[in-house]
Amino acid sequence: MDVVYEDNHIIVVNKRPGEIVQGDKTGDEPLVERVKAYLKEKYQKPGNVFCGVVHRLDRPVGGLVMFAKTSKALARLNEMLRQGKIKKTYWALTRNKPPKAEDRLTHYITTRQDNNTSKAWPTPRDGAKEAILSYRLIGESERYFLLEVNLETGRKHQIRVQLAAIGCPLRGDLKYGDRRSNPDGSISLLARRLQLIHPVSGKELDLVAPLPDDPLWQSFADVE
Question: 74-115 pLDDT, tens per residue?
């Protein structure tokens, strides 16, 4: 368990690509159950351990995931999330250079349950939800480009599908247009940073995920 931050009310862990946050039809052990087991053992708790899921990451994505250790914290964090008071910053690697060094993208996203995909449309349509993000180009190597992405909305596969819509599918994301998979089955998207006011203590939290061990990610270690 790679714990990035923990106090009496919340715990933030660094999720590995391939892990699921909550249970799904695969039957694989979800991260929330591993966190419960960690808390139960660490604090020698009898009976069930409370661990509330605040937000999720797609299975092939790594980075920061926050859980609530108390029902009071969970209720307040859910409300903060609804009001946009939890800032989530992502790092994304693409093979293509974006058309602009920085931009604010607005699309309208529809989802299909049968194949678990989303599609970004340039204009509103029935059943579509507005999706907004901002990105800026913060680094580049010989073959790849590093984007910092901030979400204004939280839609299914939002970063993946919006960047693909401007010709920048994420490295390793075959579902949305990249031509090669990553060796470990991940996509090159990292939930890099969480910024929020603590729901109980009121102190400022600014949490950063470590970069994956992958040499390409590590080549951007000096990027601020």
Answer: 999 999 999 999 999 999 999 999 999 999 999 999 999 888
- In this prediction the pTM is 0.93
Active-site residue 24, yes or no?
A: no
Burial class (CB in 10 A: 0-12, 13-18, 19+), 49: middle
Catalytic one among 7, 24, 28, 58? Answer: 58
Q: What percent of the chain has pLDDT over 70?
A: 100
**pLDDT for the residue numbered 16:** 95
Following DSSP, what letter does each residue of the chain receive, concatenated? Answer: --EEEE-SSEEEEEEPTT--SS--TT-PPPHHHHHHHHHHHHTT--S----EE-----TT-EEEEEEESSHHHHHHHHHHHHTT-SEEEEEEEESS--SSSEEEEEEEEEEETTTTEEEEESS--TT-EEEEEEEEEEEE-SS-EEEEEEESS--TTHHHHHHHHTT-PBTT-GGGT-SS--TTS--SEEEEEEEEE-TTT--EEEEEPPPPSSHHHHTTTT--
> What type of residue is 21?
V
* Distance set, CA 163 to CA 96, 136, 213 (Å): 10, 12, 24
Query: 3-state secondary structure string, 110-130?
Result: EEECCCCEEEEECCCCCCCEE
